[in-house]
Each structure stands twice: as C-alpha cells, then as structure tokens.
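ingest -> validate -> predict -> emit
validate: passed (alphabet ok, no gaps, 339 aa)
predict: started
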Amino acid sequence: MSDLSQRSTRGERILVVGPSWVGDMVMAQSLFITLKAHDPDCVIDVMGPKWSAPMLERMPQVRRAIVLETGHGETGLRTRWRLGRSLKGEYDRSIVLPRSLKSALAPFFAGIPRRIGFTGEQRYVVLTERRRLDKVVLDQTVKRFVSLGLPVEGTSDAIPEPHLQVDRVRQEALRQAHGLGQRLIAMMPGAEYGPAKQWPLAYFRQVAEAMIARGYQVIVLGGPKDRNAGEEIRQGLEGAINLCGDTTLTDAVDLLGACEQAVSNDSGLMHVAAAVGTHVQAIYGSSTPNYTPPLTQSRDIHWLNLSCSPCFERTCPLGHTRCLNDLEASQVIATMAVD
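emit:
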C-alpha cells in the first residue's frame, strides 16, 4: 500500500470518476458534501480531465485530483489501464458519474471492490452495483450525482449547494492586473454546447450599457473561443473589459467571486458563479432550468418555456431560436435591481 493510502484511512476511501463538463463538475461537489455529511472521516479523490484539477483544489471535501490524460471523447484504453493499475489497493468504493463504459474502466482495472454507477453501455462487468436511473424521481443532474452516493437506489438527500473557495489574495491581484474597480458585473456569453443555448450578443451588450450607466464596470469572461463574442460586447463601451481567453478557470472563480451579479447562458461558468455566491441572471434557451438550474437561492431565471422548449438541441431545429431571440434584454435589465 502506498504512503498516500496509509494516511487519513479511518473512513472509507472513495474514488469518484467525475464528469467532463465544467458545470457538471461544479454540481458534483453536492455529492462530495453529501459523502462527507454521511461519513466525515471518508477520503474523497476525484478522477477527471486535466482542466478540472485546479478547480477541484477549491473544493475542501476533495483530498486530491487524479488527472486522466485522455482527450474528450477518446477511449484511451491503455491510459485507463495504466492509471487503474497504479491505483490498485487505494480505494474501498468508486462512484462513476458518467454513464459511458470507458468511464468505468479505470476503477475496474484498479480492482476497487465496490464500483457504483447507473446502468448504461453494457457495463455489466465493470460495475459491481448498476443502478437504474429513474428520470422522474431523479429529474436533475445534481440529484443523480448525489443519489449514487446514497445506500438506497433511486433516492436523493436534500441537495447541498456547491461552494467553491475563493482565493482573496489572488482575487486582489487580478483586480490590480486588469484595472478593475469595486463594483463589477460579469457577463458570460459563451455556450460550448451550441448556438441554441447562446443569447444574442446584442442583448448582452444592451445589458452592459445599462449596467455601465448605473456605475458598474462590466467584465466579459469566457475561453479563447469566446474572444470575438466578448469583443462584440465590449467594443466602444468605456467601462467594459473583454477578458475572454485571458484568464484561467480558477481566475474566473476568483473574478466571479468579486462580482455582484453575473449574466450568463446555461453554461459551466454560470454554475461557477452560483458556487461562489454571486447573484446569477441565468438565461435558458434549448435547455431547461428544471434540469440544470444554478444551485443557489441568489438567482433569477429567464426562460420563456415555449411550446417547443426544451429541445436540448445544439442548433434550433425550427430555425428561429425564438426561445432566446424573444427574450429581450429589457427583461433582464429590469430584474437586475441595484442600490
């Protein structure tokens, strides 16, 4: 047994195979909190993509992040075998959150005695406990995650809200580096899933104009792919800064923790904003807040709930995207009450 597995072993040693999307990984913290509530001495390690490791460090329930060096969508059989064998004897239980066969391979190769996950993709051998997914009872992603940590199939505890730790020293350094003031509004116009989840950029810009007129500074956050979108919002607006592509994920955690409100599509950064206590203006198009809501009481939901919604498509199958185009900026501006 390794030195690592010999430390802090009074409680159960649990390996969680985490999801591949930012928002889902944030919601997975509700599972980690639940596991600690049931067994405060348990040890939780989380296997996930490389990008997730710094964010998992902001979750105090997690002892360590284990990086799975495979690309999104890759099987990586040899990589999973090597990683699994390196973990042999380290854990008592594994909880596999994704429903794919490949996600369950590393715990199987590690020989973890209890390997729990939902039935899917013929996982009869690699899982020791295959649970039926009742989509009526477990009608939200976070409920499904939490249920896999509970002893009774198909049940869910009260859902604890995720809470990512903010590094205040780093936050102040970011303020200084980017010339940020004290009154900040964040905007996250990206939605990696597809355009059917992206509110029109012109509407984001209208909200930015209104917030700047009220004395706020607006920061636009996102990845490199969102840089042009951020520039379209920022261009010509004194008091707006486009940081898309210029920050890491943990930078975004700290910056969002400095903002009073965040205007966001249904995206990973929306869930990050909720998890740092920022008031969220959540905009839904092809998805639904009934399935993946921001896990906070400090939120406003903007969803037209048209007869064709939710379709969960990446692009509008009807070609009009009315679920977003008809959701006017004035509705969001009116909701953003400020002193």
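The longest strand covers residues 43-48.
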